[in-house]
Structures are given as C-alpha cells and as structure tokens.
Design goal:
alpha+beta; Sufe protein. Chain: A; about 15% strand; globular; binds zinc ion
Length: about 150
C-alpha cells in the first residue's frame, strides 16, 4: 500500500546519502558553526549574500545523523536564490512545522520539499537534529550580517 511516510523517508535517505551543496564555500560573506550535543551533530554553514540581501550561494560541511544531514541538504536547496527576509519567513515556517502538535494545520506547501521533515515532530529528541542547520544559518546571518562593506 502506498504510504506518504515512506516517500518522505526516501527523500531523507537520499539527501543523507547524497547531500546537496556539501563542502566548503570560498570567500563566504557569512559563516557559522553549529553543534547539537544531544546527538553529536556538527555543522558548518557558509553563505554568500549579495548586496541585494539575496543568498547567492550556500554550502555546508559536517557530520551527524541522517536527519541533521538531510535537513541541511534540503535547507541549502531551499535557500539558494532567496532573500534574507525570505530566509526568516522559512525559518519560522520550518520551526512551526517540526514543533507544532500534529493537529495544528501548517501550510506545508510554502515549505515545499522541507515538509518531509515534519515527521520529526513525533520524535522530540530528533527535533534539534532537524533544526540545527537553521539555527546555525541564523547565527551566521546575524553575527556577521552587519559587517559587510560596500
Ligand atoms: Zn542528530
């Protein structure tokens, strides 16, 4: 029988095995490291933001569980070409997706493929695995965001 959860599982397995945008980015305008001590996931995210506040390129390195790696891979795909404002909206949407109780309707269509990670809300110990990359990205933007020279 067709099960949507199996499809979601496949996307996560695929992104874990073949992470998109994996590796170091030369000359990033922003970067940060993230660590999830509950699971041992480590990430380093790199971004290049242009003078229109658009994310021109984003990459990540690190190691961790399948959820953390798949989430980072899916996040980089979702963020390339987006503005920092769009990032903030997606951050909120993603956070709600993975932390809301099942009966709160959240608009999964806006999040696109990121919706596959909604299943972690049933496993509270894995939520930090899924959100680590987002928090790391937010730190990268907020810490070095104002230090750009024109
Ligand atoms: Zn993890």
């Amino acid at each position: 029988m067709f099960d949507l959860k199996d499809l979601y599982q496949q996307v996560i397995v695929d992104h874990n095995k073949h992470p998109r945008n994996f590796g170091r980015l030369e000359d990033p305008s922003h970067e940060a490291e993230g660590y999830n001590p509950l699971c041992g996931d480590r990430l380093h995210v790199y971004l290049k933001v242009d003078d229109q506040d658009r994310i021109e390129d984003v990459r990540f390195e690190g190691e961790g569980c399948a959820i953390s790696m798949a989430s980072a891979s899916l996040m980089t795909e979702a963020l390339k070409g987006r503005t920092l404002e769009e990032f903030r909206a997606l951050f909120e949407g993603f956070h709600e997706l993975v932390t809301s109780s099942g009966d709160v309707a959240c608009d999964e269509t806006d999040l696109g493929k990121l919706a596959v990670l909604g299943g972690v809300r049933a496993f509270p110990s894995r939520i930090k695995c899924a959100t680590l990359c987002w928090h790391t990205m937010k730190n990268a933007i907020e810490r070095s965001g104002v230090a750009r020279t024109e």
